[in-house]
# Entry
Amino acid sequence: MGDARCAWCGAALPDAAGAGRRYCHAGHRQAAWRARRRWSQAEAARRTLVTAGSMLLTQVEQELAGMAADDGTALEGAAHCTAVARIPRLTDRLVRLAVLADRQAGASWPQIGRALGISGEAARARFTRRGTCEGRPGPGDVPPR
# Structure
């Protein structure tokens, strides 16, 4: 069993460890249990995120299909801009849902900030100001049925 490693930290388990042992000490076993629990509790937020992403993709495809179907005779001024004007709002909503899902899964603000290319403090200030990361989706975060 000399090549067995702790499932939490990767440290080598001692040869005297019993068969089936996965963690080097009880603290790592508890940390792994808490991480699995947070991940399962964030399931609803992940489902909402996937649904919102699918809706965004569908709306972008519909806008582009509408532009492609037009023969060019009835194009109004700035038609291309009009077609994609809603996309920034939709992607902002998608980012807020992703932050909510990550927070519910136990991600820290510095981790979220790194993923978004900003500091952890900036991420916390930006996303808690709107109340998007209080542990429950807001009325605008739930996709229509």
